[in-house]
Amino acid sequence: MIEVRGLVKQYGAKIAVNDLSFDVEPGHVTGFLGPNGAGKTTTMRLILGLDYPDAGTSLIHGKRYAGLAYPMREVGALIDAKAVHGGRSAYNHLLCLAQTNNLPKRRVGEVLELVGLTDVARKRTRGFSLGMSQRLGIAGTLLGDPAVLMFDEPVNGLDPEGILWIRNLMKALAAEGRTVFVSSHLMSEMENTADHLIVIGRGSLLADCTMEEFIARSSGQTVRVRTPQPDLLAKAVSEAIPDAKRAGVATAATAGAATAGAATARPTATTEADGSLTVHGLTAAQVGDLAFDHGVRLHELTVVRASLEAAFMELTADSVEYRAGEGPAEQPAPVSEGAI
Amino acid sequence: MATTTQAQPILSALPPASGRAGFGGTLASEFTKIRSVRSTYWTLLVLLVVSVGIGAAITGGTAASWSHMAPSDRASFDPTQASVAGLFYLGQLVIVVFGAMTLTAEYSTGMIRTSLTAMPRRTVVYAAKATIFAIVALVVTFVAAFISFFLGQLLLSSTHDTATLSQPNVLRAVVGSALYVTLCGLFAFAVGAIVRHTAGTITAVIGVLFVVPILAHLLPQSWYQDVDRWLPDAAGRALSVTVGPPPGHLFSAWNQFAVFAVYTAVLLVVGAVLFLKRDA
């Protein structure tokens, strides 16, 4: 269990973390999402006491990290896989970590085997690929058999097999009742792994909810309709009252003005190339009722769920720190194309 | 293909924990760190070769030219100081690099973040690092000092002007050289904690130990004599003299050493406070 309360961190004039509060609960994988520069790594560094916050606290099992009796037995944290001395062998790197917490030597060999680095245990880490370094870092986090695990962008540099491996590992660790807190700037990585999401942008909390809630609250949800009378339905949709209940993407979104605006816009219906209609701004039930009221026959009525990536892009559109070019401030949520 | 079956099959249970992680474990960890990188062995080998080699060159050269030397030069020749000169002039340079790197290498590699995650109690990490460095430096400088001394006396045997450890001040000069060089290393370690950058640390320490004394010589004589006894490197010059009167403007040998020790202690404390207070 990690508890973060009112965390603030400023580097010079730049506010990296701005009054951040959340809990990370045991028993599931919690994804920590945000665009590059959103403050994910800083938050993790603050939790671990590598950096000192300007305000606020972060507690693990009710204690500050530095106050834990055996930190590695309670928390396994991987912030930067390349933060090793390249001249030291994988085995000696893990040994020097294990010794600080009086962990038995045999654990070093065991975690090396677990991550598949036994063959290169005596090799200096300078020659390791980023993927091998990630595995070494993960091995380090498991040395103390901790109840809390924190990984910062762990799949960076891993090949598809490695990504699958770490996903399964994180799920297995969570299934054992551990707290697993993993950051990423790519929603697609979290889609199959995380049960809970904490989304931040520019250091502020944007969403703290389950994966299901996150998708459901997204305004990117659309309905696909097939009907022999598309014009009639399109007209009915455009005259319908927008659904007030769905206004506002995430209640925690303080910076989500653009997304809230999009959600309160009038419903639209777009004719697709295959003749189907794509309806934005209404639920499937509302579209069905509307069709019934107007005597329109339906051949298909399908909810097209927003992909997590689309929902994430929409939520963080305002808070992207680094953007290519001089593009528009609003990031599209591309469920279907050309919705006007 | 990796699958879920790979997760957690082979980890043995940990023994129950009691107490808390502290100085002992971190000391063992720091020893593992220092012995598990090649640069340690290279550095210490260079220290030994340079110290013993220069000492041998000076003593051997003196022995070869002894018959041509003026009596006054013979009288002022200090066989002890000559034999350990390699250690306290050039060994000093090597230990400065070694001492500086002990902490700055953790910053340049990023290892410091991993180290402080494993052991977040920073005072413990700092103290363990300094302790292990001091022990290794003491062992190597003592070995270098005594090898240099005995080899130097052996090479000087033809001159019949050799020193033995039982003569006045000789043991002090040999042991003092080792202690002085170790202290130079700790001085560099402390500056490294403050500067956190290898090149900057080495430049600063070399400046204080080598350049400042040269600049001090440019001062008017009376000023120089007042200033010199407050320079860190004066400790080495005071300790290593065994022939003739000690330099009159300096404190006694061990007091001169104490001046340097106080500087080093102050810097070690400043380094510790910064190590504790700053973001890693």
Structural write-up:
The complex is a heterodimer of chains A (340) and B (280). Chain A is elongated. Chain A has 2 domains: 2-214, Rossmann fold; 219-319, Alpha-Beta Plaits, CATH 3.30.70. In chain A, the strands form 3 sheets. Chain A has a 6-stranded mixed beta sheet with strand order 5-6-7-3-8-9, sandwiched between helices. In chain A, strands 11-12-10-13 form a 4-stranded antiparallel beta sheet, covered by helices on one side. With 340 residues, chain A is an alpha/beta fold. Mean pLDDT of chain A is 85; it is low at 244-263 and 326-340. Chain A has helices at 40-47, 71-74, 90-100, 106-115, 130-142, 160-175, 187-191, 211-217, 230-238, 257-263, 284-293, 308-316, and strands at residues 2-11, 14-24, 29-33, 55-60, 75-78, 148-152, 179-184, 196-201, 204-210, 222-226, 268-271, 277-280, 300-304. In chain A, helix 3 packs across helix 4 (106-115) and helix 4 packs across helix 5. With 280 residues, chain B is mainly alpha-helical. The model of chain B is unreliable at 1-8 (pLDDT under 50). Helices cover 73% and strands 0% of the residues of chain B. The chains are: A alpha/beta (340), B mainly alpha (280). At the A-B interface, helix 2, helix 3, helix 4 and helix 6 of A face helix 1, helix 4 and helix 5 of B.
Q: Kindly state the number of beta strands of chain A.
A: 13
Report the CATH superfamily of the largest domain in chain A: P-loop containing nucleotide triphosphate hydrolases
| Helix coverage percent of chain B | over 70%
Q: Give the termini distance of chain B in whole angstroms.
A: 38 Å
* Quaternary assembly: heterodimer
Class of the largest domain in chain A, according to the CATH hierarchy? Alpha Beta
Bin the helical content of chain A: 25-40%
Written as H for each helix and E for each strand, in order along the chain, the element string of chain A is EEEHEHEHHHEHEHEEHEHHEEHEH
* Rounded radius of gyration of chain A (Å): 24 Å
Low-confidence stretches of chain A: 244-263, 326-340
Binned strand content of chain A = 15-25%
Biggest sheet layout of chain B: none
Count of discrete structural domains of chain B: 1
Count of discrete alpha- or pi-helical segments spanning 4 or more residues of chain A:
12
Largest sheet, spatial ordering of strands of chain A: 5-6-7-3-8-9
Measured distance between first and last alpha carbons of chain A: 46 Å
For this structure, the CATH topology of the largest domain in chain A is Rossmann fold
- Tell me the series of helices and strands of chain B, N- to C-terminal: HHHHHHHHHHH
Largest interface: A-B, 56 and 49 residues
Strand content of chain B: under 5%
Total of domains of chain A? 2
